Amino acid sequence: MRRRTRAKPQREPTIALINIVFLMLVFFMVAGTLAQPLDPALKLVRTQELEGRAPPDALVVHATGKLDYRGEVQEDAAAFVSGLSEEQRRIVRLVPDRDLPASELVALTRALQQAGARKVMLVTERALP
């Protein structure tokens, strides 16, 4: 009679796990170097002291609801649009004050469109992370 030998317990496939981790490491090393680093001698523009100004062809809306166009006070949206040429009515740029309530901004954009502005674009501040 022959004795049965016990089967050895299966070992975990640690080699496969090590290979996967190594491939992930290589992937992240390659992916992290795809973007070319900036030249150390390059000096970027500083905008801290830059005075914020609206574009010259934009309608400025203050927090109080007052409308300005090129330094002149405008009565309302309809009067503003009526003074524009057909070309200028294609795109009307609007620079709202940060403290202007959103409901007033929406009402103003609707009034501009009803007065004849085809497209109203909001000009905002862009912040870099």
UniProtKB/TrEMBL annotation:
<dbReference type="Pfam" id="PF02472">
    <property type="entry name" value="ExbD"/>
</dbReference>
<keyword id="KW-0813">Transport</keyword>
<dbReference type="GO" id="GO:0005886">
    <property type="term" value="C:plasma membrane"/>
</dbReference>
<keyword id="KW-0472">Membrane</keyword>
<keyword id="KW-1003">Cell membrane</keyword>
<keyword id="KW-1133">Transmembrane helix</keyword>
<dbReference type="InterPro" id="IPR003400">
    <property type="entry name" value="ExbD"/>
</dbReference>
<comment type="similarity">
    <text>Belongs to the ExbD/TolR family.</text>
</comment>
<keyword id="KW-0812">Transmembrane</keyword>
<protein>
    <submittedName>
        <fullName>Biopolymer transporter ExbD</fullName>
    </submittedName>
</protein>
<dbReference type="GO" id="GO:0022857">
    <property type="term" value="F:transmembrane transporter activity"/>
</dbReference>
<keyword id="KW-0653">Protein transport</keyword>
<dbReference type="GO" id="GO:0015031">
    <property type="term" value="P:protein transport"/>
</dbReference>
